[in-house]
């Protein structure tokens, strides 16, 4: 991520977890965040079982190849390091959902990718909806 971008999206909650390759993809957190028109642009990759019992789902955007980590309660997380060995725990930090989503989706319109115009419109609309929800809660 560009310099300073990560610091602006992070919140204070930090968790440790281990990657777990589940057999049943869990799309609920992603669908709740981005909505039906955009959910198909992501692949479910794995889940992270955290030491505090939290479960984080890892999704990878098909076009931008960026990861989006979402807890089942809708919170967004960013991988911040660790977890290299089979038994090592990785570090994740909670982040502002709209800022993480912006980092994942904005290459569609900022970098010359093969995204279709409809995909770009739907992604921008999803980002606007997430930002609007955050303003309502604030």
Q: What do these coordinates show?
A:
With 138 residues, the protein is of the alpha+beta class. The chain has six helices and six strands. It has helices spanning 5-9, 28-34, 36-39, 97-105, 107-110, 117-137, and strands at residues 10-20, 42-50, 55-61, 67-71, 76-82, 90-95. It has a six-stranded antiparallel beta barrel with strand order 1-2-3-4-5-6. Strand 3 (55-61) and strand 4 form a beta hairpin. Helix 4 runs antiparallel to helix 6 (117-137). The longest helix has 21 residues, at 117-137. The two termini are 26 Å apart.
Q: What do the pLDDT scores average to?
A: 88
Count every helix, treating DSSP H or I runs of 4 or more residues as helices. 6
Oligomer: single chain
Cα radius of gyration in angstroms: 15 Å
Major sheet strand order: 1-2-3-4-5-6
Largest sheet: 6 strands, antiparallel, barrel
Percent strand equals 25-35%
Counting helices, strands and paired strands, the structural category is alpha+beta
Low-confidence stretches: none
Shape label: globular
Helix content: 25-40%
- Beta strand count: 6
Order of helices and strands: HEHHEEEEEHHH
Distance between the termini: 26 Å
